[in-house]
Amino acid sequence: MNKAFVKESEGQDDDDLPEHLALPAGVRNYMTPDGYARLRGELVHLMNVERPSVVQIVSWAASNGDRSENGDYLYGKKRLREIDRRMRFLTRRLDIAEVVDTSAQPNRDQVFFGATVTYLDRAGDEHTVTIVGVDEAEPLQGRISWISPVARALIKAREGDTVVLRTPAGVDELEILEVSYPAPQ
Prior knowledge:
Layout: H1 12-15, E1 29-31, H2 33-62, H3 71-95, E2 97-99, E3 116-120, E4 126-132, E5 143-145, H4 149-154, E6 162-167, E7 170-180
Parallel strand pairs: 1-2, 4-5
Antiparallel strand pairs: 3-4, 3-7, 6-7
Helix pairs in contact: 2-3
């Protein structure tokens, strides 16, 4: 059957979702204001710049005649599906987002969402991480998801506390050296 007559399922987007971006059932999608703005900016860029540009290319390629061997047309249609899939994903994530103003945290000596924490592990290595939303996490840049094992171990601890981190690699102890939040605006 021709691809044009096969309807893609609506739930297909969730199957393609990387595991680290999937939200566990019943968990809220917390985000910092910066993370929300970044995702919103990406959605606006896709809608207003990238998609219209690709539509124009596909339209031009379609006007050239035979579409079966037209690389611009075939690639453009594939790129449009990718853009539309990303736009649906971003729209759903932004719809369920709960933006948390981390600068307004009243308990600034305790670890909560949005905190930047410096800690020592058992080996004596110092690490600094910021606890952010699932969609904002970039572990190599020190931005970890609030549902990650390290963040869960750190949550509600205070400066000077030692917490236990349980991972598949074993048990580690983390000594919290410093907790900070963005300055109130």
